[in-house]
Amino acid sequence: MKSMEEIEEEQIIKKLCRAVTFAKSSIVCPSCFMKIAQVVKTCPRCQFSGAVAIQRYPFPAPMMVRFMDDKDIFDSRARQAISNRLTQLEERFPQVRICFCALELPEHVDLREFGYWLFNASPVEDSVEAGKRPWTILLLLDHVLGRVSVTSGYAIEPFVRDDQWVNCLRIDREYFFKRDYREAGLRFIAGAEKILREGANRAELKMSGQMKRKKRMRSRKEKKA
Amino acid sequence: MKAVIVFFTSLCLVFSQEERLPSALRSKPDGHIYDPSGWLLDERRTEIEETLGKAERQWSVRLFAVVLERNPAGGAEAYARMLGRSWGGEGVWGVIIHVPGIEGTPWCVAERGSMVKWASKESFDEAVKAAMDRTRREPAERLRLKVACKELTDELGFLGLKEERIEKKFGEAGNEGVEKAMDQHSNRRVLFVGVPLILLIGVVGFFVLRRKLRNRKKPFLFPETEHRVRFQGPWSGGGNAVLRFTRKVGKDSSRRG
Questions:
Q1: Which chain B residues are Cβ-neighbours of A157 within 8 angstroms?
Q2: Which residues fall within 8 angstroms of residue B191, CB to CB, at 6 or more apart?
Q3: Looking at beta carbons, which residues of chain B come within 8 Å of A55?
Q4: What are B19-34's pLDDT values in tens digits?
């Protein structure tokens, strides 16, 4: 049985965990892709910000749902299979949500920048969505030009790295290229599960390490007292 | 002088009463019966020959029936032993001496050669004694020799049969049997050690696997963290993960896949 103190301590840790405790990826400007050492409101090089993004894409963003796909790039069979797999993933990681967006963009529009805009501009109508949005992983697919990108929310960001997503996409490249979006989607989910599991293990280790350190500190203080 | 003559005469008389080793006896008879006087009836002779022949054929026991007119000098048993060693060789042999009209007849001596690993000496002697005891119970003197041969054949035959079975069980298999037994023993040892070890590994493996599976299925909650809010984005700061999967270039220079 955990004592009250321990339970409280766990909760405190959960509340106070800083993203940098887990985060490994550096901050990158979604427009000019410059690496930035700390959080900024606008990119120091290209002055990119949320406001700039809204100016660049002056149209309403769609609702963030599992499939944002007007042209049925993901057919019903693919949607069914992917949905089933996502249900499994959500059982293991109940906080996490993966959304698929298939669209056609002009060549000059970068998928990462568009992803940033879509992620932030998509309406949040209720608290459920507000709770889910930071834990969302968005797969953006430009099926015409053959591009695919991943954008993750602030909450999930500390536990995953961009290079992991790139590797995951690279493994699925063959299926994207063959336009086998069912298989590509399923494989992407499998890769995402692996990445999340790694992140979860890392987080668990860090948490237990922190707990031990705190206990040690407390026992030292008690001894001194 | 008179006394000396009387002594020698009496000595001659005594010797004349007893059977001496005739020279013909030194060579083995054709069959299993030595009966120079023809005391045995043909019918009985055939029966005894058959019985003794069977003992030799089946169990390599050489039995001889000897009919003497007089008791041999030095005793029937000593005489029988002498005959048996001469005729029987190194194997198992037996000589039954019958002197018609003399009490206690027939006498029997049976021995086994040093090379024969046939039962124990005690059980062998007991078998011979039992055969002769039963023979002496036969009231008709004429039949006693036949009965003796039959009983002795049966007793030694039984011992032979027993030995044969033992041979079959352990001897014939020989080294093969020993190797088999050792193999079985080592197999058993492997079973005794291997099976519990495999079971133990299996059980441990099962629990480890179950724990892993449980952990896999167990929902995991990531800890809440402070959001690194940047570029005025309320939900995401964007990412740097992108991949191009188009390889084909169209006629109009488009890169449509």
A1: 228, 236-237
A2: none
A3: none
A4: 445 444 557 788 888 8
